[in-house]
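Help needed: design a sequence for this.
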C-alpha cells in the first residue's frame, strides 16, 4: 500500500447530488483520489465494510472506477460489488446496496449533465440504506477534503470490469456483478407484469422509451422488451455512450426532442417515456400530450392501490418544496400525511426509512418510492404502464380525469443557465432583503401573503436545513419559488418555479405558460431577473 501526499482542493463541496465538476477538473492530480479518500475517512474504519461501485457509463467512468478499486483495496474494504462494465444506474445502485446489505456505495454520475472529455463528471456517496448521504455526512466529507494529508492506494493491474467474476486483492474480495439483474428482479415484485405484458404485446398499444444513449438502455431493453414483451425497437437510443451521443441526457421537452417529435398527435404511440444520464429521472408523454412531473407524481399516488406494491395502501407521501401541490390534494383525499422537503432526494431518506412515506417526488422529473432510496425513472414508467393497463385508458384520459376530480395545479419551471455568479448573488441578496416588506404588497393581480426563505426541520432526526429557496406565496394561492441550482458546473443556474391552482370546475385546458403568465410577470417585477441578469427569457422551460 502506498500513501500519497494529497494536495488540498478547496472546492470539493458536494451540491444537491454529490460532487460535480468538469472531467478536466476531476483529472487534476489527486483530485478524484482526495475526494474518494475523504469519503473513506468520513465513514472510517473501512475495514470489514462492503462497498458498491457503479456509474452511468459516461466518459471517465471506467478510469475512475479503477482508481476507486485500488483505493478501496488500500483502505482495507472487505468486499466490493461492481456493476458489469462499471455500470449501475442510480436506482440500481441503491437496490444493490440494500439487497446485499452493503455499508454504502459510490455512484459515478453527473446525472442529466452532458458527458465527454469537455463535459461533466460526478461522484456521490450513498449510505447503507441506499440513500444519498444526508447533509451532515456530505458536510463531514467536505470537511475531510480540507484536512486531507494523504490518500491510500495500491499498485495493482486494472480489474477486468466486463466479465462477471470474483477475485481477491489483498484483503478485498472484488465481485463484478450483473448491472441489471437485481434491479429487474426487484421491479418484477412491485408490478403486475402479466397485465403489463398483455398491454404491450397487444396491437392497440404502442410505446416508445428513449434511453437518450444513457444508462437505462440495458435496463429498459431487458425489462420492457425482453420481460414485458414490447416489440424490439420500443427502446430507442438504447446503447449507452460515453458522451450520450453528444446530447444532453435530460428527459424534458427541450432535450428529449426526438421523443417529443415521435409522440406528436397522430403518431399512434400511446405512451412515451425517457430517462436521464443515470436513470433516476423520467418524463411521461401521451400521444401529443405532455404530463408534468408534479402531475405524474399525483397520478401515481392517487392510483397506488392499483399497483401490487401498494395494495395495502399508503400512509404518507412527500414532495420537494418547489413541486406543485397536486400531490397534497391526493394526500388529503386519501387522508394520509404529506411532507414538504427541500430540493434533493437526500431529504426523503429519513421519511422513507421511518415508514412515514411510501411515494415521493420532485418537479425535476424525479419520482420514486420505498423500494429503493433514490428516485427511479424506469419505476415511474412501470407505474404508468401498470395503471394504464389496469384502467384501459390513455395517459391523456387518465390525466384529464385526475384534473376533473382534484382540480389542476398549473406548473412551470424557468431555468436561466450559465448566468454570472455575481449577478445571481446580487439578485438573491436584493430579493432576500426585500422579503420582510413584501407581505401585503400587490403586484398586478397578485397580493403577497407570505414571503420567506424555506427551511426544513427533518421530522425524524430534527436536523435543520435552511436557505432552501425563496418563496413568494400569494393570497390567491399561487406561488413563485426562486433557487440557485446545486448541480451545475459552470456559472450559476437560476431556477424559478411557478404554480397556481385551478379548481375542478375551472378552465383545465390552458397552456401552462398562459395560465401562469401574470404570475411570471409579477415575479420578474419583484426579483428584477432581467435587470440583474440581462436575460429577457429563460433558457429552458419545463
Ligand atoms: C436538480 C433538481 C433536483 C434534483 C437534482 C438531482 O438539482 O432540481 O430536484 O434532485 O437535480 O437530480 P438543482 O440543485 O440543480 O436544482 V439528478 O437526476 O441530477 O441526480
Ligand atoms: Co439523474
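Sure. Designed sequence:
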Amino acid at each position: 500500500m502506498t500513501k500519497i501526499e494529497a494536495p488540498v482542493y478547496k472546492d470539493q463541496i458536494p451540491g444537491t447530488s454529490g460532487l460535480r465538476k468538469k472531467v478536466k477538473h476531476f483529472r487534476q492530480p489527486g483530485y478524484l483520489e482526495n475526494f474518494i479518500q475523504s469519503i473513506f475517512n468520513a465513514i472510517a474504519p473501512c475495514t470489514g465494510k462492503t462497498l458498491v461501485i457503479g456509474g452511468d457509463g459516461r466518459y471517465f467512468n471506467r478510469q475512475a472506477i479503477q482508481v476507486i478499486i485500488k483505493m478501496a483495496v488500500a483502505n482495507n474494504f472487505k468486499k466490493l460489488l461492481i456493476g458489469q462494465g462499471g455500470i449501475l444506474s442510480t436506482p440500481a445502485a441503491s437496490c444493490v446496496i440494500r439487497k446485499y446489505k452493503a455499508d454504502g456505495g459510490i455512484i459515478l454520475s453527473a446525472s442529466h449533465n452532458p458527458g465527454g472529455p469537455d463535459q461533466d463528471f460526478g461522484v456521490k456517496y450513498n449510505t447503507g440504506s441506499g440513500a444519498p448521504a444526508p447533509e451532515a455526512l456530505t458536510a463531514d466529507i467536505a470537511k475531510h477534503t480540507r484536512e486531507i494529508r494523504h490518500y491510500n492506494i495500491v499498485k495493482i493491474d486494472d480489474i477486468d470490469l466486463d466479465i462477471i467474476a470474483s477475485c481477491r486483492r489483498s484483503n478485498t474480495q472484488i465481485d463484478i456483478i450483473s448491472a441489471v439483474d437485481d434491479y429487474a428482479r426487484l421491479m418484477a415484485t412491485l408490478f403486475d407484469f402479466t397485465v403489463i405484458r398483455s398491454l404491450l404485446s397487444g396491437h392497440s398499444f404502442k410505446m416508445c422509451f428513449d434511453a437518450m444513449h444513457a444508462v437505462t438502455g440495458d435496463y429498459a431493453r431487458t425489462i420492457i422488451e425482453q420481460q414485458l414483451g414490447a416489440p424490439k425497437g420500443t427502446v430507442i437510443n438504447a446503447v449507452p455512450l460515453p458522451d450520450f451521443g453528444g446530447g444532453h441526457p435530460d428527459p424534458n421537452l427541450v432535450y428529449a426532442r426526438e421523443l417529443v417529435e415521435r409522440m406528436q398527435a397522430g403518431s399512434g404511440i400511446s405512451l412515451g417515456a425517457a430517462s436521464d444520464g443515470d436513470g433516476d429521472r423520467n418524463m411521461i408523454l401521451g400521444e401529443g400530450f405532455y404530463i408534468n412531473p408534479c402531475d405524474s407524481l399525483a397520478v401515481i399516488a392517487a392510483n397506488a392501490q392499483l399497483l401490487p406494491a401498494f395494495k395495502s395502501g399508503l400512509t404518507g407521501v412527500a414532495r420537494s418544496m418547489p413541486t406543485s401541490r397536486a400531490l397534497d390534494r391526493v394526500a388529503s383525499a386519501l387522508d394520509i400525511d404529506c411532507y414538504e422537503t427541500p430540493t434533493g432526494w437526500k431529504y426523503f431518506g429519513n421519511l422513507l426509512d421511518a415508514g412515514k412515506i411510501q411515494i415521493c417526488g420532485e418537479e425535476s422529473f424525479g419520482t420514486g418510492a420505498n423500494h429503493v432510496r433514490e428516485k427511479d425513472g424506469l419505476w415511474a414508467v412501470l407505474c404508468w404502464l401498470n395503471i394504464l393497463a389496469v384502467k384501459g385508458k390513455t395517459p391523456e384520459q387518465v390525466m384529464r380525469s385526475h384534473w376533473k376530480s382534484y382540480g389542476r395545479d398549473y406548473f412551470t419551471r424557468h431555468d436561466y443557465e450559465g448566468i454570472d455568479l455575481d449577478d445571481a448573488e446580487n439578485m438573491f441578496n436584493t430579493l432576500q432583503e426585500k422579503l420582510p416588506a413584501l407581505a401585503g404588497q400587490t403586484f398586478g393581480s397578485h397580493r403577497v401573503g407570505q414571503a420567506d426563505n424555506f427551511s426544513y426541520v427533518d421530522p425524524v432526526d430534527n436536523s435543520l436545513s435552511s436557505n432552501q429557496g425563496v418563496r413568494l406565496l400569494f393570497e390567491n394561492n399561487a406561488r413563485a419559488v426562486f433557487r440557485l441550482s446545486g448541480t451545475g458546473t459552470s456559472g450559476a443556474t437560476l431556477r424559478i418555479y411557478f404554480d397556481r391552482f385551478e379548481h375542478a370546475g375551472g378552465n383545465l385546458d390552458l397552456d401552462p405558460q398562459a395560465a401562469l403568465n401574470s404570475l411570471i410577470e409579477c415575479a420578474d417585477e419583484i426579483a428584477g431577473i432581467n435587470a440583474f441578469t440581462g436575460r429577457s427569457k429563460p433558457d429552458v422551460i419545463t
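The pocket of cobalt (II) ion (ligand 2) is lined by residues 90, 111-112, 276-278, 280-281 (CB under 6 Å).
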